[in-house]
Every structure is written in C-alpha cells, then in structure tokens.
Specification:
heterotetramer; A mainly alpha (about 190); B alpha+beta (about 375); C mainly alpha (about 350); D alpha/beta (about 170); A: about 190 residues; mainly alpha; Four Helix Bundle (Hemerythrin (Met), subunit A); 2 domains; D: alpha/beta; Beta Polymerase, domain 2; 5-stranded mixed sheet; two-stranded parallel sheet; 3 helices; about 20% helix; transport (chain D); NADH_quin_OxRdtase_su_C/D-like (chain D); quinone (chain D); NADH_UbQ_OxRdtase_30kDa_su (chain D); oxidoreductase activity, acting on NAD(P)H (chain D)
Chain lengths: ~190, ~375, ~350, ~170
C-alpha cells in the first residue's frame, strides 16, 4: 500500500515540477482567456454570417455572454454581472423577441441582402470602425486601477454617487424619456 | 410602419381543457381573442339514428351515453317522453324515486363542473375534493342500481328496482354531509382572491344575448332569468317540493359558478323532501312486454343538468320509434361561446369553456 | 457535533486526497472539482428528493396517498422509476422545428440554474465562489434562463410553445425588477453584496425576515413567478397553452427542463434561507442541519402555494408586478435607507 | 304548467294566414304552413303572440316528403317569475318539403338561436336553408357524402386501408 502511495506521489511531484518548469499557470490562464475570446469572436462572426436572422440574434447573445465571462475572469465580477444582466438578460432578449415576432416566409434565409455590393460596403464600414477603435485603444494610456478605490463595487458606488452624480442622473433621465417615448409609439401603433 | 397580424389557434380536439374532443378555433391578436368558433362532431355516434332501429325500451341505455355525467336525468327525460307517447301512468313512488336520483345526479354533475372549473384555473386540488364527494353519490347509485356511470335505472313506466332502506339511510347521511363539503369548497375556492378575479366580470352576457342564443340551464339563470323547466313546466312531482330557482345577476363566469354552487343546496333540499315524503306503492307501472305506442308524436322536455333536455319522438305505431330527435342543451348552449370569448384573453377562454359546461357526448350526440 | 459540519467533511476529503497525491497545490485544484461535483450532486439529489416530495405533498393536500407501490409502502423508489421512464422514452423531434436551437434550449436552460449553486453558502466556509458582488452576480446569472425558454418556444414550431415563450419574457422581465429591489433592502442593511457577509450579519443581529418583512413577501412572490410555479405558472400553463415551451419535448430533453425546474425551486428556497432566514445559523444543531431544515421548509411553502392556489391571468400577473410589487419594493427600499441612515448616525 | 295553444288562438292564426292548416280533430294539432310563409308566421308568433323561445328545430323524413318541425314556447313572465309556476304555452309549426329538393328559408333572421340546429338538420338530413349565415356541416366532416338521418341512407362500405405491417408490405 505504502509502495503504491509513494509511486503516486512520485508521479504527481514529477508532473507538478514539469508543469512549473513549463510555466503552466500562465499557460492555463492564457488558454482560458483565449477560449473565452474565441467564443466571443466566433459568435460575433456568426452574427454576421448566419443566414437565419434569429440564429444571428442568438449568437449575439452568446457573444455578449462570452464578453461577460471575460470580465469575470479578469477579476471584475461587477462589470461582468452588469454585462450579463443588461446585455444578456435584457437587450438580447428584446432583440430576439422582436425578430421572432416578425413573420417572414422563409426563416432560413431571413438575413439582410447578401449581394456582393452590400457585403463590400459592410466590410468597408466595419473595417473603418475597427481601425478607429484599435487606434484609440492603442493610443490610450491605461492606468492601473488605483488602490484607493478598494473593493470595486464600493469604489464604483462612491464615484457614481459623488463625483459623477450629474452624468449618472442625466443618463437615468435620458433612459426614462426613451422608455416613455417607446411606450407612446408602441401604443399609437396598436391603435392604428 | 408594418401592421400587426392576427393568427389562428386551434384549441383542441386534443387539449387538456376543452372537456373532451371539442375543437375551438380561436382568432387571436396576441393574447386577445377576436373570435372563437366551436367545431364539434368528434364524438358523433349517431344516437338519433341508432334509436330508430331499437325498440323504445332498448333505447333507454343509449340516453345514458349522451350526457354521461348525469345519466339519470337523460333516462328521466327519455322515459317521460315515451310514457307521454304511450300514455303510461307512472306510480307515485316511482316518480319520487326518479326525482331523488335525478337530483342526486344533478349534484354529482355540478360537483364535476366545480372540479373541472377549478382544474382549468390551475387549482387541481379543488378537483380532487369535488371528485372525492362525487364518489359518495356514485356509491349511492351503485347501491341502488349496481352501476356507477351509465345507470339505465329509470325505465319506461317506473324504475328498475325499488330502493332499499339502506339507500335511504345513506342518502340522509349524505345530505347531512352536503353543507360540510360545500363549506370546504368555499374555503379553498370561493374565498380565494385569485379565483374570484379570474371569474368576476369575465365572459359577461346580457339577458338579451343569452335569450337570443337560446341558452338554457345554469347559463341562462346566471344572467338573471329564472328559466328552470322544473318550475316552468312543473313536470313530474316537482311542483310538490319547495325549492328556489337560483339566479345570478351579471351573467359573468362568477355567476355561472355561483348558480351551480347554490343549485347543489336546492337539489339537496328537493332530495330531502322527496325522501321524507316517499310514498309506499309499486315502483313500476304495468307496461306491456312489447310496447307499441299509438301513432303520433311528442315533444317532452325536462331540466337536465346543463339545461333544457328535449326529446322529440315520432311513432308510426310500430315497436320502434320512427324518428327521435334530442334537443341537447350543451349543443345549443355552444352558440354562446363566441360571445363569451370575444374580447377576452386566452386564459379567459378556458374559463369560458368550463363555465358553459359542455359535455361532448351530449354536444355531438 | 463539531465533526458534523460540511466544512469538517471537506477537510476530511481533502486530507484523504492529500494523502494520495502528496501535493498541496494539486490537492487544491482537485478540491475545486470536488466542490463542483458536490454542487451538481446537490442538484441531482434535489431533483430526486423533490419530485418525491412534491408528489407526497401534493397527495397530502389532495387527500390521497401519492406514490405507494414502487419501493415499499411509501413509494420511495418512485423517482427512480420516473427517471427510468423518462430515459427510455422516445425522443420525438417535431416536424419543421429549428433543430439546433430546439436541441440547445433544454441544455442551456440547465446551465444558469446549475451555475448559481456555486454562489450559495451552504455552511460555515462552505461556498464554492464567495464573490464580493455575489447577490448581483446571482441575479445576473439567473436572468439568463429567459432566453432558453424563448428558444424552446420559438424553435418548437408550435403556437402553444410560442405563446409560452413570449409569456416567459414578459413574466420573467417584470418579476426581476421587484425581486432585485426587495433584495436591495437586505444589501443596504448588510452593506455588502457578499453572500457570506449577509449570513454573518443575520447571525450577529436578527434574521432579516424580521427587519424586512415586506421585502420577504415581495421576494417570495417574485421568486414564485421567476420559477414559473403556481399561481404564476403561466409559462407552462397546461390548461391554456398545454405546456408552453415544453409542449414539444419528450424523454430526456423534457427531463432536463424538469431538472432545471427543481434546481430553480431549490435555489430560490436556498436564497430565501440565505437572505431572510439566517442561512446556516441556529442554536444547538450543526449549521448544515439548520440550513437544510430551513431550505426544506421553504420548499414546502412553495409546494403549498402550488397545490392550493389557482392560476392568475397573464394581464393580472403583469399588472400585479408593475403596479403593486414594484412600488411597494421601492417604498420599502426608501424606508430601509432612512432606517439605515438613522441607525448609523445613532451608533 | 305546460299547455298547448288553444283552439281560438289557432283560429286567429288561420284567419291571419289563410294558407295555414291544422287538424281540428287532434288534441294538439300541429300548424302546417307553406315554406314561403314560414317567416311571416314565425315573426307573427314571436311579436304578437309572445312565442319568444324557439326551443327545438328538427326534421323528419317521411320517405315521400320531409317535414321541418319547430317547437315554440311562450313563457309569459320572462323576468318576473320567481316562484309561481305560470302558464307556459307551446305550439308546433311544421313545414312540408319536397323530397327531391328540400329547400326552406332559414329562420335565423327571426330566431337567431336556430343557427346550430339548422346546421345540424342540414348536415344530417340534407335540407337546404336559404339565408343561413354559415351553412356548413356541423357534426360530420366536410368531405362526408350523404345525410345519415334520411331513411334511404345507406352506409358506404368502409374504405379499404392496407394494413401496415412491420416488414413494410
């Protein structure tokens, strides 16, 4: 029995040593990151390439959730939860539901025009957008999160309710107006 | 801007809440019902045609299969029609026994109604309770005729056999039990806020609409019209008993429910009076072995549990009826379904199916 | 007594694994998987126990016996029989359905239901992931179960399923709001969104059900709605839309929906226990006993609702959420805020 | 109590509608009316004589001719009757129809409640109703041929359905 245990210990220790020498911690971290990244990116690609618009919308949700997981993986669960709740839980559902409720003759080919002209136009626009974003993010000097913020939630709360209270409230009012406007429009459509 | 579109939903014939094989074609705008079209005939067995090839006495068991929840009332109606046609005088004791079993069956049928309404509104526990108590009545019938579902107890000229003292004793016991279980339903169903809000003000029907659809039974009484054949025609020995015609006020589902709920008490009252005054004597009139009613025709109606049950029989003087037509209350009541559903939600349509209380065996005949 | 805690059990498992592996780091990694397995084990056990419990509770309410043939007088093996039945059933694929979406729906539905078990504190120190935004993350994850319902409803190519899917969205989105706001009261008193902190705060003072009775009621009601149980089971409403999104599923796929439903039932009971009933705390007995006693009591309460109430109508249900529960939750939150402020300035 | 319409009321009817016929010998004579005067008679009965309830609509096949049968009831005190069992008069109206092409005006314009019953008669007896809002088969399915309640109806042989066996033949 003891012999067997010793053998197992030996194998385990050898394995751990090898893993350490190969920098396994970093490797695992990176592989998880890349896995989540690929999920998001492939889902996003699927949004563009799918022929069925409902599938596109569902893949959009997958992409949102992948990004949310990335946030959580990068130690900011609050942002991740917000991503889940707002994008995965509300925005995506509304998009999917709106698409499902709209009837088409053939759901399998319901995505937008697939002519070469449209595709080229889309490629140019998205390429330009991608360029802008990447330039912007490359040129920005990212700072380490300052230690004084402490716990990310309380830090966020402090900032939002003191320093940035005005923009916060303005955004809230704006959303409220948008909501009421949407209600009014929807009501009008129903009556006509 | 693109408009919205309506769509058709076929509720039934296989659907948990259409009470058998009824199919209702709902025209829907979202969850709002624009129209409801009942489509029936899935249980059509041609009983009217079958009765033409049977003798009058052989025809009685077929009526059991019409409204199989209240077979006694159907037997009663058919036998009354045949007796009227053949001029048979039914002994008093038989009439009393008939009234007793018919009213007991009415209670049983209304209990099924309460239970099925409860389960359609999601309160499946309510159904189990009513079926538990209906079981007592079925046991009584088992005692009196040996059957629990299709009795064939009321025969042309009287009843199949006399009631035993044990039956009378147990029926008294059951009548004492009636207020007890009714109190229980009050607790679990009537007092429930959700139950109330699901029924009050839903499927409202005015007196005029109910009359124009020729609705009968609890459905018309719920609108406030005291139309009860037992009172209006005063057939059999009903005029001797003291009972009220229960009516509603608003003609909504709540009233339809309440009318049936309170009718149980009235029926219990009739049964008690009939038991108290049960006369001695024969339970069967002298009916010739081969019944040949004289040439002629008859339209006889009785108050079934679901409304006015009419039998139109044409005799050509032979042993078999020339033509039998059955005026089934459920069938005629179905005309009101559209009015009861239109403008309400899918959830209300289920309550409306229940409240109209159709029995497909009767609708399709 | 000390040895009866879950923590002690975990320590013991850890020591065994350590003995076998002989490496601290690897043992920690393995222990994470043991924790995962325990969470899944809780869900699967719950599905078995709760199906049996539901049948028995239902039978108790409905004056009948319930399962009494399979496995002795009390029908103890009934869940196993049910499981075998479900597994051996034919997998019917409806004609004209959106195959991929249809097949994914039950699996995806199970994911959020199972995932939130990682955030529950079962006992002193027994929590898979003690996140500092636990409450928030939990609500976020549980909100993800809307989409699978919608997918199932859409892909089944059936109008009943589709209506069910639409109802899910309306129902879950409207009841999420009062649920969140009712929990905010608890979070404000505790001053933390960490689940263990909330439990600890109740151990120090009183259970939050006493401090936040209105929030407790709102939470119970909206949790019932979130898990689609009577009186708010309009999604699977068998008397109107047959079974809603599940109408076209059979066999194991349906069993997954079923499993998710019971996982959700247990998780809302655990949530109620954690937020309002003091978690694992209680005198005399080890924490794990208290915890499961409270949870099972809550499960019983939810079953009680299910078997005694009729079902509401969709418009009544939505207006109840927006016109009654949400304002009530907001008012409750305001008063809690004032109370917390006054309390802190007094201290 | 249920009573049949009195002799003087019938005489009044005869006076109003000359084509109306009834057998004075019988105790409860049915009123025969030609098809084209049916609607006038029914509106008269409803509006002037208080026969507001069309309780029963049916038909009989007498091999050489069809007979439509209407049972009407006059329930005088529609709203007030609570406990007093009151007069309840009824009348049978009949229409004889040709056996080859039975056509009759629909009474739904006078008694809208007859809609389903007329559909039933159309379905099972094959009598055509002109002016009916929605004349379709009601109990039998659309593709059914024949009208089963006719005396000369012969049931068609059940269609031969090849038996499906496990081997596929």
């Amino acid at each position: 029995m003891n012999e067997l245990l010793k053998l197992v210990h030996g194998v385990v220790n050898w394995g751990m040593d090898t893993a350490e020498s190969m920098n396994a911690g970093v490797l695992i971290d990176a592989s998880v990151f890349y896995a989540l990244m690929w999920v998001s990116v492939l889902a996003a690609l699927g949004v563009v390439l799918c022929r069925n618009v409902v599938h596109s919308a569902l893949l959009l949700t997958a992409s949102f959730i992948g990004v949310g997981c990335l946030y959580i993986y990068m130690d900011s669960p609050f942002i991740g939860a917000v991503q889940f709740l707002v994008y995965g839980g509300a925005v995506a559902i509304l998009i999917v539901m709106a698409l499902m409720l709209t009837r088409r003759d053939d759901m399998a080919h319901s995505n937008l025009s697939r002519s070469l002209f449209c595709q080229a136009g889309a490629a140019v626009i998205s390429g330009a957008f991608f360029l802008c974003i990447s330039v912007a993010s490359l040129m920005t000097q990212f700072r380490e999160m300052s230690a004084e913020l402490g716990d990310s939630v309380t830090g966020l709360a402090d900032m939002m309710l003191t320093k940035y209270i005005l923009p916060f409230e303005v955004a809230a009012v704006l959303l409220l107006i948008a909501m009421i406007g949407a209600l009014v429009i929807a009501k009008g459509a129903h009556e006509s | 801007m693109a408009g919205t579109e309506t769509y058709t939903l076929n509720m039934g014939p296989q659907h948990p809440s259409t009470h058998g094989v009824l199919r209702v074609q709902l025209e829907l705008d979202g969850e709002n019902i624009l129209s409801a079209k009942p489509i029936m005939g899935y249980l059509h067995r041609g009983i009217e045609k079958l009765l033409e090839s049977r003798t009058y006495v052989q025809g009685v068991p077929y009526t059991d299969r019409l409204d199989y929840v209240s077979s006694m009332n159907n037997n009663f109606g058919f036998c009354r029609a045949v007796e009227e046609l053949a001029g048979i005088e039914v002994p008093e004791r038989a009439e009393y026994i008939r009234v007793i079993v018919a009213e007991l069956n009415r209670i049983a049928s209304h209990l099924v109604f309460i239970g099925s309404l409860a389960i359609d509104l999601g309160a499946s526990t309510g159904m189990l309770y009513t079926f538990r108590d209906r079981e007592e009545i079925l046991d009584l019938f088992n005692l009196v005729c040996g059957a629990r579902m299709t009795f064939h107890y009321i025969r042309v000229g009287g009843v199949n056999r006399d009631v035993q003292p044990e039956f009378i004793e147990k029926t008294y016991k059951f009548l004492e039990h009636v207020p007890v279980f009714m109190e229980e339903y009050k607790k679990i169903l009537l007092g429930n806020e959700i139950f109330m809000s699901r029924l009050k003000g839903i499927s409202k029907m005015s007196k005029e609409t109910a009359l124009s659809h020729n609705m009968t039974g609890p459905n018309i009484r719920a609108t406030g019209i005291p139309y009860d054949i037992r009172k209006v025609d005063g057939y059999s020995v009903y005029p001797r008993f003291d009972f009220n015609v229960v009516t509603g006020k608003n003609g909504d589902n709540w009233d339809r429910f309440n009318v049936r709920y309170n009718e149980i008490f009235e029926s219990a009252k009739i049964v008690r009076q009939a038991l108290d005054g049960l006369p001695e004597g024969p339970f069967m009139a002298k009916v010739p072995k081969v019944l040949r009613p004289p040439k002629g025709e008859v339209f006889s109606r009785t108050e079934g549990t679901r409304g006015e049950l009419g039998f139109y029989i044409v005799s050509d003087g032979s042993t078999k009826p020339y033509r039998v037509h059955i005026r089934r209350p459920s069938f005629v009541n179905m005309q009101g379904l559209n009015d009861m559903c239109r403008g309400y939600l899918i959830g209300d349509s289920v309550a409306a199916f229940s409240a109209i209380d159709p029995l497909m065996g009767e609708v399709d005949c | 007594m000390e040895n009866l805690t879950v923590g002690a059990a975990a320590e013991w498992i850890r020591s065994v694994i350590l003995l076998i592996l002989g490496n601290e780091l690897l043992t920690d990694v393995v222990m994470k998987f043991v924790g995962l397995g325990a969470c899944i084990g809780v869900i699967l056990t719950a599905a078995i126990v709760l199906t049996y419990a539901e049948r028995k509770v239902c039978a108790f309410m409905q004056v009948r016996l319930g399962p009494n043939r399979v496995g002795g007088r009390f029908g103890l093996l009934q869940p196993i029989a049910d499981m075998l039945k479900l597994m051996s059933k034919e997998d019917i694929i409806p004609d004209g359905c959106d195959r991929i979406v249809w097949a994914l729906s039950p699996m995806l539905l199970f994911v959020p239901s199972a995932l939130i078990y990682g955030l529950f504190p079962f006992d002193e120190g027994v929590v898979f992931a003690d996140v500092n935004v636990g409450v928030f993350l939990l609500l976020a994850i549980s909100s993800q179960s809307v989409l699978p319902f919608l997918m199932g409803g859409y892909a089944s190519n059936s109008k009943y399923a589709f209506i069910g899917g639409m109802r899910t969205v309306a129902q879950m989105l409207s009841y999420e709001a009062p649920m969140v706001f009712s929990l905010l009261g608890v979070v404000m008193i505790t001053g933390s969104m960490r689940m263990t902190d909330i439990v600890a705060a109740q151990a120090e003072n009183v259970w939050f059900v006493l401090l936040q009775p209105i929030a407790f009621i709102i939470f119970i009601i909206s949790a019932t709605a979130e898990t689609n149980r009577t009186p708010f089971d309009l999604v699977e409403d068998e008397s109107e839309i047959v079974a809603g999104p599940f109408a076209e599923y059979s066999g194991m796929r349906w069993a997954l929906f079923f499993l998710a439903e019971y996982a959700n039932l247990l998780s809302i009971s655990i949530l109620t226990t954690t937020f309002f009933l003091g978690g694992w705390h209680g005198p005399f007995l080890p924490g794990v006993f208290w915890f499961w006693m409270k949870v099972l009591f809550m499960v019983f309460v939810f079953m009680w609702f299910r078997w005694t109430f009729p079902r509401t109508r969709i418009d009544q249900m939505l207006s109840f959420s927006w016109k009654v529960l949400l304002p009530l939750a907001l008012v409750n939150m305001m008063f809690t805020g004032i109370g917390v402020y006054v309390w802190r300035s007094m201290m | 109590m249920k009573t049949y319409i009195g002799a003087d009321a019938l005489a009044l009817l005869k006076e109003k509608f000359h084509s109306v016929e009834y057998n004075t010998e019988e105790a409860k004579p049915a009123v025969y009316v030609p098809a084209d005067e049916l609607l006038q008679l029914l509106s008269f009965l409803r509006d002037e004589m208080g026969f507001t309830r069309m309780e029963n609509v049916t038909s009989v096949d007498y091999k050489t001719y069809f007979e439509m049968v209407y049972h009407l009831f006059a329930w005088k005190t529609l709203d007030t009757c609570q406990d007093v069992p009151d007069e309840n008069v009824w009348i049978t109206v009949k229409v004889k129809l040709d056996h080859e092409h039975p056509v009759i005006p629909s009474v739904t314009s006078v008694f809208s409640s007859a809609e389903f019953e007329e559909r039933e008669v159309f379905d099972l007896m094959g009598i055509d109703f002109t002016g009916h809002p929605d004349l379709r088969r009601i109990l039998l399915w659309e593709g059914f041929s024949g009208h089963p309640l006719r005396k000369d109806y012969k049931q068609a042989a059940p269609p031969f359905v090849e038996r499906i066996t496990r081997r596929g033949h």
